[in-house]
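ENTRY TYPE: paired fold submission
RECORD: A
CONTENT: sequence, then structure tokens
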Amino acid sequence: MESFKLSADAIVAQDPELAILPVGSLEQHGPHLPIMTDWAIATELGRRVAGLTGGFLLPALPISTCREHMGKKGSVWMEPPTFYQMMNDIILSLKVQGFKRVVILQCHGGIFIMPPLVRDLNAKYNPDLMVVNIDACIFFDRLYKEGIYETNTELHAGEGETSMMLAIAPETVDMSKAVDEVPNIPRSYLSYGSIFRGSASGVWGESKCATAEKGEKALTRSAEMTVEEMEKAFAYMEAKKPFGYSNF
């Protein structure tokens, strides 16, 4: 059972040290996927990571920063400073309660203020609090190399995300409208214009290759790799000794 469905007394009895904070987004995902895609994937990945670790699972946050998807109704964002402060407050509330480890599951690639947030928290509060951010985008290439995905063009609403949604909520996916479109621009150009400047459909990848079977395999491996990566980062922080006046 997800931790947020338990009573406070039950959570006290478990006394977990790790908190799991999935973060999604409400944004366009082409003509074939729902705007809840990132949130749905964050919710499912969080559930699986909690099952592997026994950590305290928070409900996935549905809204973050996504101005790179401006142009069609349905994408909802907050300003980066607002997101920064909200995340800072949530994580410090966990620290006050005795959580020593927080892993953020970033299931929307466009949260460009996330690295400064994580760096600042660790710089201020190590070793009493350790915060790790796992950006799910880092797994796309690994899943391709492991043979789970057929294509290596995934960035948004392509084979990977579409496969995961077919596994999580197939009733929300319309494969008759699936699109293969790979913009001829680097990802960094999303700072210069919305995704629609490079992709008429809003897709960045090859969604027609998606299947529910691939999605289930990808979710399983993503959860496993998340745990592997977060444990490496936590071990790195735990091994640090004071340097001059700093524990960071």
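RECORD: B
CONTENT: sequence, then structure tokens
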Amino acid sequence: MRHHDSAEDYLEAILMIEELKGYARSVDVAKQLGFSKPSVSTAVGKLETQGLVEKKEDGSLRLSVSGREIAEKTLEKHRFFSTLFTRLGVAPDIAEADACAVEHSISDVTYRALKDRLPL
């Protein structure tokens, strides 16, 4: 199943925040992505409906098994491309932005071929 880029961005942000803080809240996601809290609340509601995220009683967000799988794949691609682009001499801020764009558009087949041939 293919998910929209924005859903992948939200899931990836939740995972990154969890890795950093041990938990994620909508306000953290809003800050990470540069979106308003109401926009994030709407998106999180959609992710909940799709079974990708659960909002706990304390307001924190938890990725479902399938949500975590998508987030981990997206983050893996992001880190790979960000590292690759930086090692190629691209400025870190540009490498990050380009990695974010590529992580959504590249097929799993092409990504795996690159990853297998360009171990970073």
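NOTES ON RECORD B: The mean pLDDT is 93. The two ends are 28 Å apart (CA to CA).
STATUS: closed
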